[in-house]
Design brief:
By secondary structure, this protein is α+β, with helices and mostly antiparallel strands. About 65% of the residues lie in helices and about 10% in strands. Keywords: ATP-binding, Kinase, Membrane, Nucleotide-binding, Phosphoprotein, Transferase, Transmembrane, Transmembrane helix, Two-component regulatory system.
């Protein structure tokens, strides 16, 4: 009884009735054609003419289902009433002919089954009431006796209520079966096509790339700043009473580092708030190779920096990513090497930019963030997106960073 009359069965019956309502305009057009051929006779005057009209209405519905916007409208009804998993259905208009044909087949099936179930739902309940009331209403019995037939017999009158109830149960069973059939075919006919899956995968890839980009920017800018501030504050605390001049320098470096990091953080948060339709929204305010000397002066490390070539020849995108890679290398030097000296060599050639950074490494746990982080992977991703390569790790007693980025163009 739950399968025949439960909430899901009722919802699917409503869905079928909607299909019957959608069939009516096509049925009226077919009735005009049948009436013209039959000399003005109506489609409801005889059952054969009604079947012919029904057969003429279905091709019209099939053509209507080819309209691209039909699919999202049909999917909305299926999701609301048929109990189909939302992820199994496609979103958006049907663009390809394969998707249009499958949508048209679904629409034709819905209006066909809906027309039959709707017609039976209109005709059978009044007739069932008549059969149930027949044994107890004298006027109805007299009318049956006057016309004759099976109901005019004693057994006919006795079994009439049971026959009426059986008809209603049969209608409920047919409606439940038709609804279950539509629910089973919905993922096949209204599900995403290969083109839809490819478009969805590309959209997810774009969103994931944006998320990864923002994560790298936040990690490199904020992570480096916090590492530098932590080290500077720790050193200043140890010499607070003995070396006031160093403490003043450390506080000034902390102030400059946090001010610049707040600007970069505001830039990243601006991207998160940006509307895709806003052409004037700002991009990430990431500095380039020209700002390396300022970065090195604020780190609190003794860095021996050498530069070969002209950094202005490096494309802006490559210059920004190179800055972030150096920044992550300095963060690693702060975490693993404390205040040990660092050597940084940057060389610019016609075809590539190379960067090498070295600092002492004892193998002990990081002094700033013992748990480690994701900086090395993010650094490798930055280089890979430009068609280059970056790696970092211990080499004997030295922590070494090597990066090569192409300067002739970026993918």
């Amino acid at each position: 009884m739950r399968a025949l009359l439960g909430a899901r069965a009722r919802h699917r019956w409503v869905h079928l009735v909607i299909g019957g309502a959608l069939l009516m305009p096509y049925f009226l057009v077919g009735s005009v054609v049948v009436g013209g051929v039959a000399g003005g006779a109506g489609s409801f005057d005889s059952f054969p003419r009604a079947l012919v009209t029904f057969a003429l209405a279905l091709p019209l519905a099939t053509v209507s289902g080819l309209v691209p916007i039909a699919r999202p409208l049909l999917v909305f009804g299926v999701r609301a009433l048929c109990g189909v998993a939302p992820a199994a259905l496609a979103d958006g208009p049907a663009r390809s002919w394969d998707a249009r044909l499958r949508t048209s087949a679904w629409y034709t099936l819905q209006v066909a089954l809906g027309g039959v179930v709707s017609g039976a739902s209109l005709a059978l309940p009044p007739f069932t009431v008549f059969l149930i009331a027949l044994p107890v209403v004298p006027g109805l019995r007299h009318s049956v006796y006057s016309t004759g037939g099976p109901l005019a017999t004693g057994w006919g009158l006795a079994l009439a209520p049971a026959a009426g109830i059986a008809m209603l149960l049969t209608l409920a069973a047919c409606s439940a079966a038709a609804g279950a059939l539509l629910a089973r075919l919905a993922p096949v006919l209204l599900g995403p096509s290969p083109a839809d899956r490819l478009a969805a995968a590309e959209q997810r890839a774009v969103e994931l790339a944006v998320r990864n980009r923002l994560a790298r920017e936040l990690h490199d800018s904020v992570g480096h700043a916090l590492s530098a501030v932590t080290l500077q504050a720790s050193a200043a605390r140890r010499v607070l009473d003995s070396d006031p001049a160093f403490v003043r320098e450390a506080l000034a470096a902390i102030e400059e580092t946090t001010r610049r990091t707040v600007d970069e953080l505001d830039s990243v948060l601006g991207l998160l708030r940006r509307d895709d339709g806003d052409p004037g929204a700002p991009d990430l305010a990431t500095p380039g190779l020209a700002a390396l000397e300022g970065l090195l002066s604020r780190t609190g490390l003794d860095v021996a920096y050498t530069l070969e070539g002209d950094p202005s020849r490096v494309p802006e995108l490559v210059s920004r990513e190179a800055y972030r890679i150096v920044q992550e290398g300095l963060s690693n030097a702060l975490r693993h090497g404390a205040r040990s000296p660092v050597t940084l060599h940057v060389a610019v050639s016609e075809r590539e930019l190379t960067m090498t950074m070295e600092n002492s490494w004892s193998g002990a746990a990081p002094v700033v963030r013992p748990g480690g982080g994701r900086g090395l992977r993010g650094m490798a991703e930055r280089a890979a997106l430009l068609g280059g390569h970056a790696s970092a790790g211990p080499d004997g007693g030295v922590w070494r960073l090597d990066a090569r980025l192409p300067t002739g163009g970026a993918r």
